[in-house]
Amino acid sequence: MTSNYGDRSLRSVAIVIAAAGRGERLGGELPKALEQVAGVSLLEYCVHVIAGMRGLGAVVVAAPDGYLADVEEICARLTKPGATVVAGGSTRTESVSNALAVMPDGIDIVLVHDAARAFTPVEQFLDVIAAVEAGADAVIPGLAVVDTIKEVDASGSVLRTVPRDSLRGVQTPQGFRRETLDAVHRDENVDGATDDAGMIEASGGLVKVIPGHPDAFKVTTPFDRLIALALVTSRSVQ
Ligand code: C5P
Fold first, then answer.
1. CA of residue 6 to ligand 1 center, whole Å
2. Can you give the three-state secondary structure of the chain, one letter per residue?
3. The whole model's pTM is what?
4. How far apart are the CA of 18 and the centre of ligand 1, in A?
5. Protein residue with its CA nearest to atom 14 in ligand 1
6. Of 24, 138, 151, 237, whose CB has the highest number of CB atoms within 10 Å?
7. Domains of the chain with CATH codes
8. What mean pLDDT comes out for the span 108-114?
């Protein structure tokens, strides 16, 4: 049965989960997506949220080198119908390209999501889908920057203070019309971006930022793991 969110069917929407990073800054023994918070891996938290969006056209997960079977086991246990698992690449862009290569027909909108943003609320996925449907080439959630931002030179001397009113720290999922995302991934002149929206920018496309959510933070450092534990604990007592 296809569930509707509002009057929106998700049958033509796919989600790519980029889960193939090594996660060296987190300092664990496993790739970051398989590191645990309160006994559950980041990938399991992430897949659990997405599995709640019933009726999706496809879910494709890019797995870390050497951990394909572990990721397949998690997806088989938590997703119905099952997610497709592909080998990740040496960069995030390569991992996403590998996932796009197995995308089935009938998908019009692709969301690319970091497994490391494991606590992103489902509403953020739905907001991104709605904004892509409203017509942007690319949609990314973002939050206002709270710190004062300085640009520095190689010696650490401040060059200038960057006005922060117009700055956003961006999150995932990043949403795209499928043909737009496929086109930038095929274009050999577009590279060097750390995210897919950056590739759209580089190709001259319009990228729209919508409000993000604090829970969609990226688990990157040991400190983030403490925040994640606090979040999981507070959710379980509500
Ligand atoms: O390294 P960083 O934290 O920016 O990675 C963001 C997301 O991209 C993570 O979820 C990570 O697993 C994923 N990634 C990937 N393939 C890579 C590198 C990162 O799927 N080669």
1. 32
2. CCCEECCEECCCEEEEEECCCCCHHHCCCCCHHHCEECCEEHHHHHHHHHHCCCCCCEEEEEECCCCHHHHHHHHHHHCCCCCEEEECCCCHHHHHHHHHCCCCCCCCEEEEEECCCCCCCHHHHHHHHHHHHCCCCEEEEEEECCCCEEEECCCCCEEEEECCCCCEEECCCEEEEHHHHHHHHHCCCCCCCCCHHHHHHHCCCCEEEEECCHHHCCCCCHHHHHHHHHHHHHHHCC
3. 0.94
4. 6
5. 21
6. 138
7. 13-236 (3.90.550.10)
8. 97
